[in-house]
């Protein structure tokens, strides 16, 4: 009986090992990096940017992470009304909000960060005051890190 249990345990661990290894080696090929970068350039919302990060998790470090940050801040700076509505509507999605706030960072343009701060200070819908405050603080922190 013990031998049967040991055989089953060994068989189970051997069968699962390749799946675990694949999950742990979440890498990004050059082709995937280029595809993710191209998709970022065409993204028309914060949600699309977030989806690209989820689609290419192995590519989310390094240069692509900076591209994601740039896309987030440019989106907020240039499409404030749409972006703040989107953030407000998805405010219950803590992962999405954290993603956006995390990517408001010092790898982005000083001019865009200042524009985001300006929008958050003067163009915030009443129902979005809390999320505007969080965006403004993230942009201020990024600006101070430049």
From TrEMBL:
Entry keyword Signal: yes
Keywords for this protein: Signal
Domain of life: Bacteria
Signal peptide start-end: 1-23
UniProt protein name: Uncharacterized protein
Organism for this UniProt entry: Phenylobacterium montanum
């Amino acid at each position: 009986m013990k031998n049967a249990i040991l055989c089953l345990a060994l068989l189970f661990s051997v069968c699962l090992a390749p799946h675990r290894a694949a999950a742990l080696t979440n890498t990004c090929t050059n082709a995937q990096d280029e595809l993710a970068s191209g998709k970022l350039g065409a993204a028309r919302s914060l949600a699309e940017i977030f989806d690209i990060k989820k689609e290419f998790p192995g590519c989310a470090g390094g240069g692509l992470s900076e591209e994601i940050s740039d896309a987030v801040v440019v989106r907020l700076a240039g499409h404030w009304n749409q972006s703040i509505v989107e953030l407000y509507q998805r405010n219950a999605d803590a992962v999405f909000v954290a993603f956006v706030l995390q990517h408001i960072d010092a790898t982005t343009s000083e001019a865009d960060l200042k524009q985001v701060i300006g929008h958050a200070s003067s163009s915030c819908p009443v129902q979005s005051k809390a999320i505007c405050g969080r965006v403004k603080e993230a942009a201020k922190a990024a600006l101070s890190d430049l």
